[in-house]
Specification:
single chain; 402 residues; alpha+beta; Alpha-Beta Plaits; DNA polymerase, domain 1; Dna Ligase, domain 1; 3 domains; five-stranded mixed β-sheet; 16 helices; 21% strand; globular; binds magnesium ion
């Protein structure tokens, strides 16, 4: 088996994030069982302070059940804007330690520290410094795990919560994982956990020692090999920082080939309207508009031809009308009519040469941060729109690892 050289992955996770922000911002809540939700008496628990957890209150629980278990809990309505601001500050700190930061949610991320020891110091010291900065700048508490891969790093940050710091070196990996219950395996929920236990497998070590073929036969060709690999301490997933998109576009393949200019313009109108919406949501502008055309197969030609034409705009824009006008004029550059090989099988409109709406000249400096901010912003929009009983589960998933 080929073994990659050891990596150093650090996982940081804020402790009881939403509830801790509430306690930070309202001193009267400190030391008390705090439950964050959408409304006081209905709905689902989005987050619970450690004081509330002591009474068996957890994320995703119904508020009614939470109040039955902890009648004196203080129910606080969520403040998404505060969580978003804290999240931005949190990732700004992480960005100071590595260009390779992958955001998993508002309050947790992976950093790849491989090879950075000479620059940043030992991984344990990096973890300590991140924790110190989070405490000093955010008045929040972070837990940190360091391990040779993501799977173990995430467990390591969780295992000593709250205020944890656990480093698992390459030589300690197997010994760290094997005694843990199978529920710690990534991808094992209640059902799979029950299946594993019915097979007599209660720890990760049990899974590692079990014949892989038998595991695959029982759990299937996707989950079986994945769990076997994780149990043996293998996880090749890399840390994947968000990058700003290079272009935003939509394209469609038609059931019946098109050749009428009016039809094509209508399609472009719809596509670029959606493109413009995505630009605005991402706080970006396009400096280039493009059109992609794939023709049908000509009776005597070499098959489908796909062509792209693009135009630079005089002013960057996220205005659908401007994009559509430019795209429609680009149609002139294609040879489209009702003959084989000239009809349109696929049409797409896209925006490229993207730059930030606010600070166009600084895009290169912080595009990764910006892209992540967009994604977090979108998530926040959805939460804000839907922070009702059923959909609170989305919020809960964001916080249910701590
Ligand atoms: Mg957390």
């Amino acid at each position: 088996m080929v073994t990659a050289s050891p990596r150093t992955i650090l996982h940081v996770d804020l402790d009881a994030f939403f509830a801790s922000v509430e306690q930070r911002d309202d001193p009267s809540l400190r030391g008390k069982p705090v439950v964050v939700g959408g409304s006081a008496r209905r709905g689902v628990v989005a987050a619970a302070s450690y004081e509330a957890r002591a009474f068996g209150v957890f994320s995703a629980m119904s508020m009614a059940e939470a109040l039955r278990r902890c009648p004196h809990a203080i129910v606080v309505r969520h403040h998404m804007d505060r969580y978003a601001e804290a999240s931005r500050q949190f990732f700004r700190i992480l960005d100071d330690f590595s260009p390779e930061v992958e955001a998993l949610s508002f309050d947790e991320g992976f950093l790849d520290l491989t090879g950075s020891e000479r620059l940043l110091g030992a991984p344990r010291d990096v973890g300590t410094r991140i924790k110190q900065r989070v405490r000093a700048e955010l008045s929040l508490v972070a837990s940190v795990g360091v391990a040779p891969h993501k799977f173990a790093a995430k467990i390591a940050s969780d295992i000593d919560k709250p205020d944890g710091l656990r480093v698992v070196g390459p030589g300690e990996l197997i010994g760290f994982l094997q005694p843990l219950p199978v529920s710690r395996l990534f991808g094992v929920g209640e059902v799979t956990g029950e299946t594993l236990r019915s097979m007599g497998l209660t720890t990760i070590g049990d899974v590692a020692r079990y014949p892989e073929a038998a595991l695959v036969a029982r759990l299937g060709p996707a989950l079986g090999p994945m769990l076997a690999g994780l149990a043996r301490g293998e996880d090749a997933r890399s840390v994947e920082p968000e990058r700003a998109p290079v272009s935003i576009g939509h394209q469609e393949t038609f059931e019946h080939d098109l050749c009428e200019r009016g039809d094509l313009e209508v399609v472009l109108l719809h596509q670029l309207d959606r493109v413009a919406e995505r630009l605005r949501r991402a706080e970006l502008r396009a400096t280039v508009v493009g059109v992609i055309v794939k023709h049908d197969a000509a009776s005597n030609g070499p098959g489908f031809r796909q062509l792209t034409r693009r135009q630079t705009l005089s002013d960057p824009t996220s205005d659908a009308a401007v994009l559509v006008r430019a795209a429609a004029s680009l149609l002139d550059q294609f040879d489209i009519d009702d003959r084989p090989g000239r009809r349109v099988r696929l049409l797409g409109g896209f925006a490229a040469g993207l730059e930030a709406r606010q600070a166009p000249r600084q895009l290169a400096l912080d595009e990764a941060t910006r892209a992540r901010g967009e994604r977090l912003g979108d998530t926040l929009d959805r939460l804000r729109d839907k922070f009702g009983a059923a959909v609170v589960r989305r919020a809960v998933h964001l916080d249910d690892e701590d």
